Amino acid sequence: MPKKAKPKRKLKTYQTSLGFYDQAIAAPSMKAALDAWGARSNLFHQGAAKETDDPDIVAATMEKPGVVLRRPVGSDGPFTEHSGLPTDLADDEGKPKKSRAKSKAKSKPTKRPAKAAKQPSRKLDDQQARKAAAAFEKEERRREAERRKEEAARAKERARRDKAVASAQAALDEARREHESRSEAIEAERAALDQRAEAEQSRWDKQRMKLTEAVRRARE
User: Fold this and answer.
1) DSSP class of residue 44?
2) Where are the alpha helices (DSSP H) in 48-125?
């Protein structure tokens, strides 16, 4: 019997603030959201991330499931895939540091007006949910393919480096063996020369003594 297709996981929208941006993503679990954000700790346990049912945020993330959407931190604007920096940060970039410090000291941050009562959550029908889940899994497969590609490139580089090291080590070992062989041959030749020198000296000592004795007798 053919295997039943694996049921699609229901997506939820999660939101956090990292650096200069609020970030949101449609993912099947908190872990998947943390992985997409690149978080090294559990932001949900720390109270820095949450599941949201804001209809505008949910709708934006469900349009691009698995993709991290951003907006300037503290703003109420829409979440998009490519967001600019916060406007107050951009305005302050051209001002001297003292001016910024004074302006911050003079003006206390004002509380944002409370949002109007949220509209009832928009319920996605089964077709939209399946489409969003399929898009999320497609994005997951793309990221996984990129990871595998990077791992393969790293493995290839390690293999190339290991091969180069092995080749250089083999050349060094071969040169060392050749040096030792030549050194042994030189030592053997040196020992033979020493032995010949000793034999020559012994022969000469005997001959010298004999000839010297002959000279002495001839003088008598």
Assistant:
1) T
2) 55-63, 87-92, 97-106
Range from 24-33, 107-116, 155-164, 195-204 carrying the lowest mean pLDDT: 107-116
Q: 0.85 cut: is pTM over it?
A: no
Kindly list the strands in the beta sheet with 69-72, ordered across the sheet, starting from the edge strand earlier in the chain.
49-51, 12-18, 21-27, 69-72
Residue 6 pLDDT level (bands cut at 50, 70, 90): low
Q: Are 12 and 28 in contact (CB under 8 A)?
A: yes
Q: Is the dihedral of CA 64, 69, 71, 75 positive or negative?
A: positive
Both tokens of 105, joined, read 């000291």
Strand partners of residue 23: 16, 70
Q: Which residues contact 74 (CB under 8 A, 6 or more apart)?
A: 22, 86, 112
Strand partners, 22: 17, 71
